[in-house]
Amino acid sequence: MKSFLSFVNSKLPYESIAIGKFDSMHKAHIKLLRLVDKNGCALSIASVKPPFVTPPKERLQYANIPFYRLRFESIKNWDSIEFLKLLFVVLPNLKKIVVGYDFFFGKNRMNSVVDMKLLLKDIGREYVVIDILESQRHNGTPIHTSIIKELIKYGDMQSVNAMLGRFYSISGLIIKGQGIGKKSIYPTINIKNTLYITPKYGVYATFAVYDNSIYKSVSFVGNRLSTDNKFCIETYIIDMDLKITNGNKLKILFVEYLRNNKKFDDISKLKKQIENDILHSKILLSQYL
Q1: Would the pTM count as exceeding 0.90?
Q2: How many C-beta neighbours within 10 Å does residue 32 have?
């Protein structure tokens, strides 16, 4: 994702632009992007500090138009006129601005979309069309990244996935685990998470993507209460024996929360519970794959 500020001198040719955080690329974000004309682009104004719902590099795969970034930290002290003038410096042919109903700009969110038309007139750009996307909702709840983050932490993956329009996912490098699963229970793949919001601790029905193939799986997030009490994100790929290499990447798609984290007195009881988790996951996942 290229920096918008890097084009101050060289300019961009687009005639319309969608502006927003685009920090999770949920359904409302996608709908906003579709309001941009054929010769248009998108501008993401957001912080670059993890954890994310959707990391910056992944956002491009959900956009069907050119995407640029403007770090919030770079412009947080600008007034509204400064920001609007920047748009026309970089986009001298700009004729249309697309924003959400709750878009604010300028230092301390000083102006809203209601003010934008008057401010555009003040800088001689009253001909510019402002297209405002109304509030988008799921079961009466507004679709916002802040709400999605809370739902992830609460483990409500059904609502999260409905708002995103896809399964919430975490990608990470495969790391070495305890090795207990391979010896005594079910072999799991452990991954390291550095970028994503960590879901509620517990067990999930998931899909695992490895080497461009997708598999049914059961995933655990949390502290291993029955063994070393250390935090992990680990996945068992159901009915498959894959050759996995540490250092490669695994992507976990979270479909549905199954149960809370539990402590078991012995390994046999833990194994029995995992068997039930696998059976439950097979039933849930069969409707998708």
Answers
A1: yes
A2: 22
